């Protein structure tokens, strides 16, 4: 069996895709998997690190203004469609899976034109443009939120949840081990700050502006900044022993375990992981995403009393105070923790892979 998995751009697309690939291999070690990503995007580094082959397409997004770059983007779309057609011919997949991101558009379109079964995984509560277009012709749409019939035909929707990295799904490290790993004081409370795999300017600026307040409150911070903001954050925090600065944290299982509360963007993959982790969360949705889908993602939890939300535009003034206030309210922390855990779907990758196998078997029945 040969499977193409296409998409990427951010960790929110890439890590679920890798989880699907790992589950495919777990269920059938003989399956051959080829990832297709966008050149110069994050997946070209992360997928090989996970042990899978990947090829790139010369695809990029449109600029939201009149720009010569959009002419170049159109040209790259046609190049990508031609390249995708050749990938189909050479690899001869039994199915193509799209996880969102630039590359999934031309790749799944080429697969559909070739009569190959296709499945997409829509991670967000508000479907992206690529998936809305592809969804008209795919056999299955795997979703993680309710009320997705406004984007896709009901008969094609399967509620699976979003895949979560095995290291997060099956955390084995203890609190003591995690505190030792990050050189934390076990007598103090800890805030974990993650702005997504690429970092988050507003969250970083909000933390940087209040380092003294965290220190005076006796609070520790594990702060993932992203590469772009790392040097500045490291310089700002150099005199604060309680602020631990990282550009990217690989040992996220330990970071989650060490944290009392978590401040995060509201990407769908991150939210799925945090539901399993079960810690109190404050979401700061990114305003720089299509259709403001991170706000929709976060509100799905807020409406179930499972998380707090601070608007990006208000984060500099309100985020620090909201975090320190939550840390002082043990009852509220326990309530949020209990409610977010109820939303966890720990076997999402297995559900999606079962749909993949089902479509391939139907093709050859």
Describe the structure.
With 365 residues, the protein is α/β, with parallel strands linked by helices. It has 2 domains: 2-164 and 346-363, Glycogen Phosphorylase B (Rossmann fold); 167-341, 3-Layer(aba) Sandwich (Rossmann fold). It has a 7-stranded parallel beta sheet with strand order 3-2-1-4-5-6-7, sandwiched between helices. The protein has a 6-stranded parallel beta sheet with strand order 10-9-8-11-12-13, sandwiched between helices. Helices cover 46% and strands 16% of the residues. The protein has helices spanning 11-27, 43-49, 68-91, 104-113, 129-134, 166-169, 175-181, 201-208, 211-216, 227-236, 252-258, 268-277, 293-302, 315-327, 330-341, 348-363, and strands at residues 2-6, 32-38, 53-57, 95-98, 118-122, 140-143, 157-159, 189-194, 219-224, 243-246, 261-264, 281-283, 308-309.
List the helices and strands and how they pair.
Layout (H helix, E strand, L loop, with lengths): L1 E5 L4 H17 L4 E7 L4 H7 L3 E5 L10 H24 L3 E4 L5 H10 L4 E5 L6 H6 L5 E4 L13 E3 L6 H4 L5 H7 L7 E6 L6 H8 L2 H6 L2 E6 L2 H10 L6 E4 L5 H7 L2 E4 L3 H10 L3 E3 L9 H10 L5 E2 L5 H13 L2 H12 L6 H16 L2
Parallel strand pairs: 1-2, 1-4, 2-3, 4-5, 5-6, 6-7, 8-9, 8-11, 9-10, 11-12, 12-13
Helix pairs in contact: 1-16, 3-4, 7-11, 8-14
């Amino acid at each position: 069996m040969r499977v193409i998995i296409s998409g990427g751009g951010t960790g929110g697309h890439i890590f679920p895709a890798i989880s699907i690939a790992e589950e495919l291999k777990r269920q059938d070690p003989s399956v051959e998997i080829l990832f297709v990503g966008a050149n110069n995007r994050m997946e070209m580094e992360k997928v090989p690190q996970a042990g899978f082959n990947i090829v790139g397409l010369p695809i990029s997004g449109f600029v939201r203004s009149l720009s010569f770059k959009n002419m170049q983007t159109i040209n790259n779309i046609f190049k990508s469609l031609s390249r995708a057609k050749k990938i189909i011919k050479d690899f001869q997949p039994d199915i193509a899976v799209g996880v969102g991101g630039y590359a999934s558009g031309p790749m799944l379109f080429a697969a559909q034109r070739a009569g190959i079964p296709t499945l997409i995984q829509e991670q967000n509560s508000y479907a992206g443009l690529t998936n809305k277009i592809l969804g008209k012709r795919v056999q299955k749409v795997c979703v993680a939120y309710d009320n997705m019939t406004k984007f896709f035909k009901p008969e094609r929707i399967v509620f699976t949840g979003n895949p979560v990295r095995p290291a997060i799904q099956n955390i084995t490290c203890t609190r003591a081990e995690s505190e030792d790993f990050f050189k934390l004081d076990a007598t103090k409370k800890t805030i974990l700050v993650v702005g997504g795999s690429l970092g988050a300017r507003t969250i970083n600026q909000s933390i940087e502006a209040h380092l003294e307040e965290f220190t005076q409150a006796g609070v520790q911070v594990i702060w993932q900044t992203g590469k772009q903001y790392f040097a500045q954050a490291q310089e700002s925090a150099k005199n604060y022993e309680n602020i631990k600065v990282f550009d990217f944290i690989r040992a996220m299982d330990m970071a989650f375990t060490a944290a009392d509360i978590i401040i995060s963007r509201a990407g769908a993959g991150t939210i799925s992981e945090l539901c399993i982790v079960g810690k109190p969360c404050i979401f700061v949705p990114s305003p720089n995403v299509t259709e403001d889908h991170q706000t929709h993602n976060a509100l799905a939890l807020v409406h179930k009393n499972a998380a707090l939300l601070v608007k990006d535009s208000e984060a500099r003034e309100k985020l620090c105070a909201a975090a320190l206030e939550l840390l002082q309210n043990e009852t509220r922390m326990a309530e949020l923790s209990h409610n977010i855990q109820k939303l966890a779907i720990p076997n999402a990758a297995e559900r999606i892979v079962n749909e993949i196998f089902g479509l391939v078997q139907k093709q050859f029945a």
